[in-house]
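Residues and backbone
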Amino acid sequence: MNPSKGRDVTGFLEYRVARLEEIIGLREEVLIKGTDRVSPEFQGDRNPTTLHFGAFHQGRAVGCLTFLLNEWQGEPAWQLRGMATDAAFRGMGIGRHLLRFAENHLLHVSPVRRLWCNARSGAAGFYEKLGWRRESDEFLIEGVGPHYKMSKTLAKRV
């Protein structure tokens, strides 16, 4: 399979590398509205090493996430940011499939194997089921809510 494109088993959604402009509206709707944040764009979104991913239904983003090349404990690492699923599409496994797709893509295009994120507390169990570990006590991101630092080391194709 081409690591930059994929389709779920039902053919219902397309999973692929995306442009920021294709996913920014979904981020705004799911992650920004109702918080103190003012922009759905993150520092580093436009860096040449940043990778955006989307799950698309009839050409519209219904799931998204971004990996920014950053550091974890002084070593190169991919930071997961901006993961979101359209409310009408939740509970279908889109987030799980999209994250696995993105992790598999990273295995093909980068030697960096460490992943990390600041996961909303309510999502920590989701990440744990996909092999991520809690790396901190719960902490508060002002205007957004409680989070955990989580990490994962990619060791093989997912």
User: Anything to note?
Assistant: The helical segments are 20-32, 94-109, 124-129. The CA atoms of residues 43 and 138 lie 23 Å apart. Residues 1-5 have pLDDT under 50 and may be disordered.
